[in-house]
Design brief:
Structural class: mainly alpha
Strand content: under 5%
Radius of gyration: 16 Å
Number of helices: 6
Distance between the termini: 41 Å
Number of strands: 0
Shape: globular
Length: about 110
């Protein structure tokens, strides 16, 4: 399944080395991937009844995740984050922070 592929690739490329390295580029690459991956999983959870009917959805999902993990500078996660998620997150940052503070009890 795609979850196994994703987890295996993540373990094989050893993100611990990225976190422990003095350069920040690899950290940014992995954080960007996990933001895109998490967003994708949340959207997939709510759209599952619709996505279920798309032929070869599991294959398309795997291809999308491989594209997002591909070890090149402008892989899928960088493109999705910069073109879609980043603008939306920056536009809604104050609202998101307010909701998180309300849930966590921070002021």
């Amino acid at each position: 399944s795609c979850a196994v592929l994703s987890a295996s690739y993540t373990l094989l490329t050893n993100p611990l080395k990225a976190v422990e390295s003095p350069q920040g580029d690899d950290d940014t690459q992995w954080l960007t991937y996990w933001i895109v991956y998490s967003t994708f999983n949340i959207l997939e959870y709510f759209a599952d009844l619709i996505l279920f009917w798309i032929p070869f959805y599991d294959l398309l999902k795997c291809l999308f995740l491989v594209w997002c993990m591909w070890p090149i500078p402008n892989n899928g996660s960088v493109i999705v984050y910069n073109k879609i998620l980043r603008p939306w997150l920056l536009k809604n940052e104050d609202r998101i922070d307010a909701k998180l503070n309300k849930v966590t009890g921070k002021s």
